[in-house]
Amino acid sequence: MIRIALAGNPNSGKTTLFNILTGSTAHVGNWPGVTVDKREGTYRKKDVSAVITDLPGIYSLSPYTPEEVITRNYILEEKPDCVINIVDATNLERNLYLTTQLMEIDVPLVVALNMMDEVKRRGESIDADALAQKTGVPVVAISALKGEGIDKLIQCAVSQAQHPRKGTTVLKDGNLKHLIGDIRIALESLSVDNTLFHAIKLTELDELETSLHPQLVPMVEKFKATFEDDTFGNDFEAFIANARYSYIAENFARALKTSGKQTGLTRSDKIDRVFTNRWLGIPIFLAIMFAVFHITFSENFLFLKAFIPEDWESLSGTAFSGVFGAGAVNSPGVILQSLTGVFTDWLTDTVRGWLSTSPQWVSGLICDGIMAGIGSVLSFVPQILLLFMFFSILEDSGYMARVAFILDRIFRKFGLSGRAFMPMIMGFGCSIPAMINTRTLADEKERTATIRVIPFFSCGAKLPILTAVAGAIVSSFGVSNADVITFAMYLIGIVTAILTVILMRNTSMRGETPPFIMELPAYHLPQFKSLMIHLWDKLKHFIKKAFTIILASTIVVWAAMHFSFDWQYLTDEQINQSILAGLGQLTQPLFTPMGFGSQLGEYGWVFAVAAVSGLIAKENVISTFGTLAACLGAVIGEDPSGVQYVEQMITFTGATVAGLVAFIVFNMTTIPCFAAVASAKGELRKGTFHRTLLFWLVTSYTAATVVYLVLSWWWTVFIVAAVAAAAVWGIVVYNKKHPVRSI
Ligand code: GDP
């Protein structure tokens, strides 16, 4: 089978093309020794089959980032049969820079001119043939988004793979080219292949290359001593980079033709005038986010409550009662969630029926332990998927890049760059890829600070906690709306992140904020197929987790709840003598300042147990409630139905609104799940990692305590403000006395 590698700039559409080519065969691994994703899959159509490797997105083949080194080494050492260089046609000049370097390697090469749909939409056209003629490399116009030109591209790559290709360069004849020629001869005598590529890199005094062939460095140094260019002195790297750009500008300005239909501002520019406006940017961002939360979580959809009689309940008296609304209309997200609740209830009842003659502990373990635990988490999956669908749309349409841009403008003053916001925003999905993504941050301290705050951007696994507890607050206390609470909790997470980053960048993590140069991609409609692939990945991930780690945890929780320390089996009524209750009661006082510790009633330890079980996987918080509620429900002869696990907990323990909100805040900001802790460990130095764990604990403790205090006794806000002001004053004075040394 032939091996094809995809190489290109970030955002050139590599992932989109890769997904189209490989479909469901794709699998993700790691490049050896680093945590950059390695994605591989197979392309099969008619008689053609090929292994496709997606190389990390890069702007050049220099040795400065792990992505560049991986791509370069892969092509040079693994020698794929053909490289497809995917080029963003709407950004031709910048993208061709990488092409000019790939051309220098002795590997069959095809340029895939992507985003041609966008070029056409702008009323422009690109002459692919002229480009091919000039570069000597076949060029195929495609649109990965629309799936156009893909077969032709693969046919071209397969046919190119049959013929070896010698590298060519765009550097002009001249003194430098003589030097390159001399180095090639020397390399040939050392039996090195890819002499053109290596010779040019040696001329640039590229650090990977000079360590490979140190004996040839004096040749370059000697030449350097005699060379002087008006603009670049004898910096060959800059000289060569400039030569590449000049070549591109001279030759390919003509490949791009504008029909004249569209002049001035593009549609994206016009949208951006509003969306990235200095004053409107942030309010628009907040409004969009609120709309997303409203559609996903609200039980008072479109605020129709005022117009609906209070005793109204949809489909009352049926199994579906309240699914579409009770007292108000449910949002689409809540309807989906209620339907899943109806299904999991039905399933549990059916299984309970089957097991009616089996020993009590069997039906207890299966129905109250496993099914209640897993069911409580799975019932949130529809809402999680809906929220992710909105996040993916915002991301794929190009809007999230604007958010980083807007935030950069404000937070640069506080030592935080927009570049750091990208991984943070990724944290809404999952902290793990987000932490790995911080590798794009050059400044070590900015990177550490970013990794630390990523978990505050509430990930998918924390959503059940937010939704379940917010829902319980609304139904038990009749305050607010679930969407408002969930939205506010997300904002508290973001604000905590920003405040702690500012704090770190002004104390232990001081340093310069590098400039943020980012290209804003043109807005476009997200592609349905890639959206579905995204959601399917998320769903697979959740289901896999539900039947592995969450399943195991529910069994452990159930067992710890039904056995005493001397291994006696306990009935539901005796729960307070169980191992779980013992451990819970022991840790409970620690949570008292946050409002869900010793002040709670008889079963108050359940909150402590749930919070600690969340350290394994955040979904466990709710599955633990599910298991506990199923057992405790039996004590008072009430079966928890649907998703009212937390309501049950409130009835049992007497938790207050303030304590419940603090419980959410604590879980959102404390040490993340095991897997995220492991990635933080991989990304940070040892000492820094230990301090990071402490940082998470202290932050969550402080944030949850402040929330509890202020919500319980409003006047404590003055004390909190005074302490914060004193701290800020202390830091400002300290920093004045110890200014950061410029590097
Ligand atoms: P990668 O960073 O190179 O993997 O790029 P992605 O595949 O994530 O694509 C970046 C953005 O460009 C995404 O929002 C895609 O939907 C979009 N995109 C990819 N290919 C095309 C295309 O052919 N036309 C248009 N208009 N957009 C595209």
Structural account:
Strand 3 and strand 4 form a beta hairpin. The protein folds into 2 domains: 2-161, P-loop containing nucleotide triphosphate hydrolases (Rossmann fold, 3-Layer(aba) Sandwich); 330-523 and 539-743, no CATH class. The protein has helices at residues 14-22, 66-78, 92-102, 116-121, 128-135, 150-161, 175-189, 195-203, 207-212, 217-226, 236-252, 267-275, 281-297, 332-354, 360-378, 381-396, 399-411, 418-426, 431-437, 444-453, 463-477, 482-506, 528-562, 579-587, 605-613, 619-635, 645-653, 657-669, 674-683, 686-712, 716-737; strands at residues 2-8, 27-30, 37-45, 48-54, 82-88, 109-114, 124-126, 139-141, 256-258. The protein is built from 31 helices and 9 strands. Residues 258-263 have low confidence and may be disordered. With 743 residues, it is an alpha/beta fold. Helix 3 crosses helix 11, helix 14 (332-354) runs antiparallel to helix 15 (360-378) and helix 22 (482-506) packs across helix 28 (657-669). The protein has a 7-stranded mixed β-sheet, with helices on both faces. The radius of gyration is 30 Å and the shape is elongated. The structure holds guanosine-5'-diphosphate. Guanosine-5'-diphosphate (GDP) is lined by residues 8, 10-16, 57, 114-115, 117-118, 143-145, 396, 521, 524, 526-527.
Give the DSSP E fraction (strand runs of 2 or more residues).
5-15%
Q: Please give the share of residues in helix.
A: 55-70%
How many strand units? 9
Which blocks of ≥5 consecutive residues have pLDDT under 50?
258-263
* Spatial order of strands in the largest sheet: 2-3-4-1-5-6-8
Secondary structure tally, helices: 31
Distance between the termini: 51 Å
Mean pLDDT: 86
Based on CA atoms alone, the radius of gyration comes out at: 30 Å
Listed once per kind, the bound small molecules are:
guanosine-5'-diphosphate
Structural class: alpha/beta
Q: How many domains is the backbone divided into?
A: 2
Main sheet properties: 7 strands, mixed
Q: Globular, elongated, flat, extended or rod-shaped: what is the shape? A: elongated
